[in-house]
Design a protein that fits this description.
By secondary structure, the protein is an all-beta fold. It is built from no helices and three strands.
Length: 43
């Protein structure tokens, strides 16, 4: 799985399981990408 470090605009988010989200981000260098944000919904 590749690792990217870039700035972008979040286009969409979706819940995944209890604590994760799938995010769709548009970046200048990589275009539109989908990624999993692990543990972001924990309080």
């Amino acid at each position: 799985m590749p690792l990217y470090q870039d700035e972008g605009v979040v286009l969409r988010t979706a819940k995944l399981g209890e604590a994760d989200r799938i995010i769709t981000v548009f970046t200048r260098d990589h275009g539109k990408i989908r990624a999993v944000a692990k543990g972001v919904r924990r309080t």
